[in-house]
């Protein structure tokens, strides 16, 4: 699988591409998912996440903004991985 290594020591995996981009970032013991993509990408996204996480906890889920193609799977992934969500206060919905 494609991956990038940052100068700061993080490993970044592009998970989905095309209509919506999602990335899994490993920084030491922390793992951060950036965006959750759209509903149609959920199965492929969770398959890749499960493989890459390999039993580790997903530390954070970060949303760049709340458009459906970036955030539609947030509730499902938050529950599945029992993780915390970071989003700008102007995009927060209860």
TrEMBL record:
InterPro entries found in the cross-reference section: Metallo-B-lactamas, RibonucZ/Hydroxyglut_hydro
Residues covered by the Metallo-beta-lactamase domain: 16-92
Highest taxon of source: Archaea
Name of this protein: Metallo-beta-lactamase domain-containing protein
């Amino acid at each position: 699988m494609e991956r990038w290594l940052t100068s700061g020591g993080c490993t970044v995996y592009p998970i989905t591409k095309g209509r919506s981009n999602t990335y899994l970032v490993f920084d030491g013991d922390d793992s951060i998912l950036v965006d959750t993509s759209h509903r149609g990408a959920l199965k492929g996204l969770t398959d890749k996440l499960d493989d890459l996480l390999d039993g580790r906890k997903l530390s954070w889920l970060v949303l760049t903004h709340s458009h459906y193609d970036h955030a539609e799977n947030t509730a499902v992934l938050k529950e599945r991985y029992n993780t915390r969500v970071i989003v700008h206060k102007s995009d927060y919905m209860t």
